[in-house]
Structure formats: C-alpha cells, structure tokens
Amino acid sequence: MFLLAAALLLLPGFAQGGAVWPLPLTVATGEKVLHLDVERFHFKAIGYESELLSEAFKRYEELIFDTPSHLAEEALRGGAPANTSALAGALGRSRHTRIKRLRVYVGSYDQSLNLQTDESYTLSIASPTSTLQATTVFGALRGLETFSQLAGVEEGVDEEHGQQGLAKHKKHKHKRHEKKKHKKKKRRRRRSDSAFLVRVASIWDAPRFAHRGLLLDTGRHFLPVSALKDTLDAMAWAKLNVLHWHLVDDQSFPYASEALSRLAAAGAFSPAHTYSLDDVRGVVAYARARGIRIVPEFDTPGHTASWGRGYPDLLTDCYNESGARTGAGPLDPTRNGTYGALWRLLREAAGVFPDAYVHLGGDEVDLACWESNPAIKQWMAQHNMRNVRALLSMFEERVLSLAATAGRSYIVWQEVLDNGVRLRNDAVVHLRRVTGKGYRTLLSSPWYLNLGGFATPDWEAYYGVEPTAFGGSSEQQQLIIGGEACMWGEFVDATNLIQQTWPRANAVAERLWSGKDIRDVDAARPRYAEHRCRMLARGLGARPDTGPGFCPQD
Amino acid sequence: MFLLAAALLLLPGFAQGGAVWPLPLTVATGEKVLHLDVERFHFKAIGYESELLSEAFKRYEELIFDTPSHLAEEALRGGAPANTSALAGALGRSRHTRIKRLRVYVGSYDQSLNLQTDESYTLSIASPTSTLQATTVFGALRGLETFSQLAGVEEGVDEEHGQQGLAKHKKHKHKRHEKKKHKKKKRRRRRSDSAFLVRVASIWDAPRFAHRGLLLDTGRHFLPVSALKDTLDAMAWAKLNVLHWHLVDDQSFPYASEALSRLAAAGAFSPAHTYSLDDVRGVVAYARARGIRIVPEFDTPGHTASWGRGYPDLLTDCYNESGARTGAGPLDPTRNGTYGALWRLLREAAGVFPDAYVHLGGDEVDLACWESNPAIKQWMAQHNMRNVRALLSMFEERVLSLAATAGRSYIVWQEVLDNGVRLRNDAVVHLRRVTGKGYRTLLSSPWYLNLGGFATPDWEAYYGVEPTAFGGSSEQQQLIIGGEACMWGEFVDATNLIQQTWPRANAVAERLWSGKDIRDVDAARPRYAEHRCRMLARGLGARPDTGPGFCPQD
C-alpha cells in the first residue's frame, strides 16, 4: 500500500501542495487522499499536555485552514496554465475518507531547548487513525509543520475565495501581528466553502545537524520586532532552530541594556531604534514557542565603536606615526573598567537570553590601534607581554571567563582560534574558512546571503554545499554541529529583509536538516518553488527565486 | 541675499529635508526659512486651470502635509544621534514668515505629452509671494514635486506624532490605493500639532534629456496594477517620464487583448494574472496624471512563445538536423496570417495606449529556427530571398509599416538595426552597446538594475555613467534623446519590485535630468539617501542603498 519515495510526488486532487521542505529523512506516501473534516478537525494531545503544544495546535490550525491554496510556480513554469481537468479527473478516481483529528503523543516533559534537544518525530496519516509521535514537544512542533505542509486545498471547490482570498491574504500579510480578532470568523467561512485534503503518508524524520541557524544583524540597520517575528515564523516553517542575533556593531547599539544604559541611549541610531529588555524577552518567547533558540552576539573587542558613544573610556585611542590621535579603536583590554562593564552586560544578558550559549564575536580586531597606543604599550611592558596577539589572548580569555561565570557557554568567530586563544571544551567555533582544532564548529562561509545577486539563483550554490567537505579528518567532520546562513545588515532593513533572506535561507535549511544524499538541485527546485509559494500563502513576501513563473498569491 | 548653490545645503530648523532629487539646473537658496501656514496653505492656479493641475494640487498637499518628516539617513551615518538642540538653536535665530499659497502659472493649454513636451519651470519661494511658472502643465507638475521636496517638518514640534505617525505610515504604505477616506481627518490632526517649513529658494529647472525611462517586465512575472501605480508614483518623485512596459514575453501574455482573446486566455499564467484593457487604460491615466508616458512593448518576432499557446499557427516549427520537429520558434514571417494578427493587435493597442510610440522589440531572434524549417526555406526560394537576415528585414519592415499605419512611431532594440533593417526617420533605436546610424537613440546598457547585487552600492556606477561618452561623433551624441533603467523580470515580482528598483532607479533619474557636470557621487550621496528616506515617508519601501544608517520611517 505504501510507496517509499525519495521525493514527495505531487498528488492528484491538490492544487499542488503537499511537498515537504526540508525533505524528511524517510517518507512513505500512499496514493490515497484523505479529506480533513473542516468542521471537526483538531489536534489532540494524548497524555502530555503543555502550553507550548496547545499554542502550536492553534497556530497550525490557522496555517492549514486560513491560507490560500498552495500552488507551485515551478509546475506552471514555461507558461502552460494548470491542467485542472486532469487533476480533477484523477481526484474523482481516488477514494476519500474524512479524518477528524491528529493524535499527538509527546514522550517527555523535558522542555529544555538546546543543542541536545531531540527534534525527531514520526507522523502517520492514515484512516481511521492519524498520529504524530515525538520524544519532545519540539519534535512535535517539527511534525506539525510537516503535517501542515502535507495538507492542501482541493482544486475546484476553492473558486469562491480565489480573488477574495487573495485580498484577504494581503491584509493578513501586512497585519501579521495585529490580526487575532478576525480569525474565528474567517475560519468558519472557509470551512463552508473549501475542502482540505491531506496525503496518506508515513514519515520518520530527524535533523542531520543540531544547530541550523540564521544570522540577523541589527547593528548596521535596525530591524523592528515585527520583522524579527516574521523571520522566526519563516525559520520555523523551514525547521531552522537558531536565530543568531548579531545585536550591536560599530554603527549602532540598539540593545537597551539597563545595567549600562548609556550604551543604547547614546549608541542607538535614535530612541525609536532600540530594543527594550522586554522587547527582547518577547522575541525570545516567540522563538521558543517555535522551537527556536536565540543566541545573542556581543562582538568584542572590535566592532564596538557604538559602545564608545556612551562610554568613551571603554575604547582604545588610536594614534598615527607622528603621535597624533586618529580616533577610537577596539575595547581597551588594559583597563579593569572594561571587564567590569562587560561583566555587567553579560550578567544582565544571561537574565534576558536563556540560551546556554552567547556569541562573543572576536573577529576583525584592529591590533595596530592597540600597538599605537602609548599607555597600552607601557602596560604590556609592565606585564611582560611580548606582542598584541598575547594581549588579545588575555582579553579573550578574560571575557570568555566572564561568560562562563555568568553561566554561559560561548561561540566565537574563527579568528579567535587563529589568534591562539585557548577555549573551553564546550566552546563552539564559528567557521569562516576551514575546520577547527578539536572544537565543535559551525559553518557559515558559503552561506553569506547578503552577498548574493538580484538576478542569480544563488540558492542553487547554497544548496550544493556539503558541510563535511570543507577539509579535515572524519573526527573533525564529526565536530561540525551545523551551520548558519548569514544576512549581514549593511544593505538590509525592514524594507527588504524578508525578500532578501527568503526563500534563499530555505536552501541552507534543507542542507542542514535533510540527509547527505539529498542534493539533486533539479529535483529540489519544484519543492523549493512550492515552499516559496507556501510562504506567500502564509503572508510573507519571499522573492521569486527560480526564474519566470507565478504563485496564485502573487 | 541669494546664494547660488551647486547643491542645496541642509537648512537649520529642518529635521533634514529640503534637498532636491534630481538636482535642478540652477538653484539659488536663501538662508531664510518660511513657515507654510498649515491652516490656510494651498496651491492657487492663476489663469490656466485644468483637472490635471487641480488633481496634482491635491496630491502634493497630501505629500507635504500627510507624510512623516524627512530625515536623511546619511546625515546620521556612523551613528551619532541627531543633534537636535543645535538645529533648534539655529532655527531660533532665523526669521519666519508664514506663506499661505503658491501661485501657479501655466503658459499653454497644450496638454499633449510626448518627446517634445516642455517640462521646464521656474519656482520662486519668497515672502510675501511665492510663484511657480511653467510653459506646460507637465512642467508645473515637475515644479510641484520640487516644491514638495523643499518642504519639511520642523524638528521638535513633531514629537506627538512620532510613533503614531509611523504606525499610520505603515498602514498608509500597504493601502496606498484604498486610503482616501482617512485623508481629511489626518490633515486636520497634523495641522494642529506640526509646523511645516519651506526654504526660500529661486530655481530654474529643465531636463537634460527628453526621454527618461524605466522598463518593467510583466512577461516573466505578473505585476499587479497596484505595483505599477506605486512605481509610477516613485517615477514622478524622481521626474522620470516614460514607463517602458515590456508587456509580454515567452513566458506569459498577460495583456488581455480583446481583438485576439486567446493570446491572454491561453498565454497568461492564469486568468488572475492578466491586464484587461480597462486595467491598462487605468494605468495609462494614472501615468498621464503624473506626466509619465507609457510606451508599450510587443516584442516580435522572437520572445513570442506565449503567443503560440493560443495561436499555434503564428509560430515557426523548428527542426533538428535529422528533420525532427524540436519545438516552436519565432513568429512565422512567411504567413500572411501573422501580419493580420499583428495588425489587429497593434490597431487595438493604438486605441488603448495613446503614446506616439510603440516599442516593437526585435531582439534575440532565433534565425536558425527559420533556417531549419522546410516550408520557410521553400518560401524564401520562391521569393528569391538569399538568407534569413533578409527574411528578418522583410518581417521588421512589414511590422514597422503596420505600426505606422496604426498611427504610431516605433522604438526597436538595436539588433534590428544591426540586422540591416531600414527604419523610418522618426524611429528611435534602443541601444544595448553603441550609438546608432543617424537614428535617435536611447541608452540602457549600463542601467540593467536587475543585474545588481544585494550588497553592492551599484547606484554609484549607474550615477557615474555619462550617456554621451558611449562613442560616436558629436552629431551622433546629439541624437541621444535619453535612456532607460531596466528592471527585467526573471527574478522580480510584486514581492520585491519596489525594493529592487528603488532607490537605484533614482541614480539614473538624476543622470538623465540634471546637468552634465553634476556627477560627484560623494556630493550626491546625502541627497540620494535623503530621497530614499523621503520615499519611505511617502509610503514606498525603497531599500537601504548607502550602507549602515536609518530613516525615522524605518
């Protein structure tokens, strides 16, 4: 009865829809199509119950029943309009059974979200009983996402809300975070005029890598909380599980620390361009509800010009060859006040960001500035420090030790390692080039989304990357715990964040979730295009990335 | 009293604002700042009146009084928050006079909009009398745009609607074409809590080139009418005056011709992805109200695959070396039916598009397909035609003659000329590489916006182009009537059209409007950034293009 399929096939009766991104580890789909009973369908927790799960139920009911039908642009590529009569014919021949619920079993009450969290799940869609089983609630969230992607709107019965649905979608799109009160009414209307299908399927799924991240940069341009939440939604749809929040940089300090209040008061672009601690807590909670960790980055000792606007003493004065001051450089590693400030910042951050990890940067440090400063040179002589690399080592070791004291493990950019700094065993090294020296590593270098081109399907290159093919022994390869797509913010703000990040980050998401052998870009393209259309249906304006075509949500 | 300025200076008292893009031909600005009397200010037509003008008055009243303050991201680059106290101090020292109206004189009742339209204007902002004078109403539109850019909101008195204004702006942004009923109320509220300033200035302005265009491509992806209207707004703000509408292409035929109804019925992506003739007329009227011509393009004989879905006989069958049919190629130039269909299409289009010009494409024709077709070879032999280039010449000459019969001059891509086709004297050649052979020419090759990169400020390269430096004698250089920025649609649809087109098209706009000596990219950058913030204030999400920074409308 079941057919083991490497890629999910398009199913007759669907206005497309039903292909899953990222591709599950093993999928068996049957030929049968089941109707979701729109009047009565619900998710049903068996045994285990929690707010995380019940809120996810609500979210996925909305995604399934309140979004326009899924229709892949790829399928209609090259221009032929959909041959709906053939689909309708196929539909007529299949036997429908109504399913009224999906039973959800969660094995453990452990709700900790970290590198070790078990995200696996099994999903069986069959008549009369459909079940989702997972060890943790976060595995259940992944399974619900898969279920929502397997569901679609029946072709033909959906005519009434075609254009109307589109208008509704647009409203939905721009009011994603102020829409709650209309939901009930919409659901009822849809129920009466549409039929929802779901494939018969049996899936066992688990991620290949534990850390599947996206870096956003709020130091170069401010991103409003709504843009961060939109991004978290899109990440959850692609089963990405870490938002690496590059909070601050030379250009601005939007993180409104209360412990060091002048950092944002003087370092943000304006008072409107800041995140209060409550804003941050809200983003963290929104992410956790979607099984996404937030790893904050406070990049030091470089990339800190904005720190100096409120606290000039934190920075090193740089001098030119004739001894004239030329400006401010990295944090001053020789003053105790620097470490006092960092401690207050990190201790506070540990109360706001619950994740076990904090990213401490460590890249692109202007060592020449330290070298040019007479007071620093004097300090080094007093402390028998031969060169500024040793000074950097000392700084990093002190900062990393502060993080540890605040109860946090840390991630650092590769330069820290290159500069000979000793790291703790639980450190993670964020690679720009090659694998590290016995530490667990994250890969980002091939996935700098911000470097892409307007007219280039660069998602294909991202997709083709094999994380373990970046050199190193098999032991070193096993130290790769995942990777991150990076969207640096020099040319990105709320106007173009979604369009420039998506759908391209989806390519990285499948690379990090799906099996190593899933790498045929031609086979992936229709699913990739369909998932982009799905994002539009769900209200996010991901750009067209696979050449000419359309989605019904255009 | 007046200071002749090559670039407009930022004025004390303004929350920035007041720099004009594109830069006028001659500008003299004074140090004095005038208050717009928010209760009573209005535009006053003296003598000449028309609907075109009175509608423009309404539009510009809204733009001036209903948009958040202008604040250049560039000025605050590098991070220091605005030093508003210094501005306020400077303001305190300047003497304010309230102005209650701008008198608008238009010299001629001729409202024809074409290559010869006089777009010059003079604008004098002074106390007690401010005047705008222009030969044509379209010149007056350009002057109103300049006036609106010179105006700004006074720093400090605008606090009350800071965040509120932003929220309002967002709504405004996403409902640009369904917002009318809220206007009155908003204006009144603003009037009571803000002060609007305008610089004392004396400007004489006229464009350097008569044809300042933007190409949009609705063949590769459909663009909804609202996206076209948004684009037309942005064009008017930058004084661009031609929308080159690349309507149809291989991938789809969204133009719902009634004369040849199967073109769109079978050739569009879907029935929802079409423009009715009324849709088109609405876009044309919207453009004309902003002084923008619409030049439609029906690309022939290549790029016509979508035509063949409804009318297969129009296309040439292509064959491989063993004589097997391989697919459909360009229009069949040997069948009279081809010309009959083109005539019906062009005659109908002449009734929908009032512009004197139609663009007939002529690029990238697959001559090898014609050569492979036995029937075409036989026809060529019968007509003593030596090669397929001669066949192409014949086709082009017949099509161009049909356009002439329909009362239209034509523009063609350069390949047509390269293929030796004789053109009429009023033809315009759309250059991809070098100047032509005695015909008037348009330049596009350096301005393919769609080829840009996400993280590249490629507007600087666009800005640096000198149109007359593309070879040719001075006579040939004088034949350059302008140029077009091109946004080809392979990777662009409604999700990213605005962000990928703007603000970069503004660089081309200034190149084509302002004097030849205005080419210092560093001097242009703050104005360029300010105009981008102005676009945000007016509700269009142009992307950040000058590196890190912010607008208050972020």
From TrEMBL, chains A, B:
It catalyses: Hydrolysis of terminal non-reducing N-acetyl-D-hexosamine residues in N-acetyl-beta-D-hexosaminides. InterPro entries: Beta_hexosaminidase_sua/sub (IPR025705), GH (IPR017853), Glyco_hydro_20_cat (IPR015883), Hex-like_dom2 (IPR029018), HEX_eukaryotic_N (IPR029019). Gene3D superfamilies: Chitobiase/beta-hexosaminidase domain 2-like (3.30.379.10), Glycosidases (3.20.20.80). Its EC number is 3.2.1.52. It comes from the Eukaryota. One of its GO terms (molecular function) is beta-N-acetylhexosaminidase activity. Residues 209-515 form the Glycoside hydrolase family 20 catalytic domain. Keywords: Glycoprotein, Glycosidase, Hydrolase, Signal. CDD domains: GH20_HexA_HexB-like. Residues 20-150 form the Beta-hexosaminidase eukaryotic type N-terminal domain. GO terms for cellular component: lysosome; membrane. Residues 158-194 are annotated as: Disordered. The active site is at E364 (proton donor). It holds the Pfam family Glycohydro_20b2. Residues 1-17 form the signal peptide. Belongs to the glycosyl hydrolase 20 family. This is Beta-hexosaminidase.
